[in-house]
Amino acid sequence: MRVLLFFLVQLLLMTQSDAQSAHRLLQTGDKSYQEKKYAEAQKYYDASAEKKPSFRADYNSGNSIYEQQDYKAAVEKYTRATQQRTTEANKARAFYNLGNSYFKSEALDKSVEAYKQALRLDPHDIDAKKNLTKALEKKKEQEKQKQDKQDKDQKNQDQNQDQQKDQNKKDQDKKDGKSDPKDGKDGNQNQPPPSNGQDESNQPQEAKKAPAHLSAQQQEELLRIINNEEMKVRRKMHPQEEGAPSGGKDW
User: How far is CA 108 from CA 56, 81, 87, 105, in A?
Assistant: First the structure.
């Protein structure tokens, strides 16, 4: 019984010693952090967490890493801080800084969720509201840029396919012996023949041939017409040959 009590006392003393040592490490880390020696401060905070895990050690270590702009490593520390036993106010601060680290890492979806979690724990956190708005706007902008890029790529792909189809058609036409009117080769096959410089409308037409066979009546009528025409011609040429002299002055 005395032996067991001895070991319990020793364990308690060791625990208190580790706690005191962890606390001293935290204080030393805080001093280095205030002096902006962030890498040095991180070492003290991590050493403190090894001796006695705590929200303060992980949270402050995350802050030191964040100041060194190693945002992905800061995510790990802030995540551990949110899992430590502490107040809701402290967890809200850890989620807020976790959202900042995700934002800097371009992990906008996770950033939005971290800010939302911070606001669930502390609905009056104005900074969390502002940063949540920024994250949502940037996310929307990135989605638009992504969609625009997809539309542009699709358009280029469609154009390339159309060009390839046109080229394939030209190649096939060449194989089939067809010509492209745009090439200027044999493009006048369907055009009217070139003019010879003469007005075809003034070209003499072929004389109509008289019927080869006429009836007796038709022949008689044709002779009568010919005789009449000949008489008209003689009258025009020799008017004095008319039967009665015309009246006029008596010479």
Answer: 26, 20, 26, 8
Specify the 3-state DSSP secondary structure of 244: coil
Q: Are 60 and 41 in contact (CB under 8 A)?
A: yes
At 65, give phi and psi (nearest 5°).
-70, -40
Q: Give the pLDDT score at 186.
A: 45
Which among 78, 75, 128, 124 is positioned nearest to 104, based on CA atoms? 75
pLDDT at 17: 58
Whole-angstrom distance, CA of residue 95 vs CA of residue 116: 9
pLDDT of residue 8: 39
For residue 55, pLDDT over 50 is answered with: yes
Average pLDDT over residues 164-178: 81
Contact 115, 109 (CB under 8 A): no
Mean pLDDT of the chain: 78
SS3 string, 96-158, reads HHHHHHHHHCCCHHHHHHHHHHHHHHCCCCHHHHHHHHHHHHHHHHHHHHHHHHHHHHHHHHH
**Encoding tokens for residue 59?**
């949270």
Does the predicted model carry a pTM greater than 0.70?
Answer: no
Contacts by residues 229-232 (CB-CB < 8 Å, ≥ 24 positions apart): none
Closest residue by Cα to residue 27 from 15, 41, 38: 41
What tokens does 67 get?
Answer: 């100041």
Using pLDDT thresholds of 50, 70 and 90, give the confidence band for residue 104: very high
Judge whether 105 and 75 are in contact, CB under 8 Å. Answer: yes
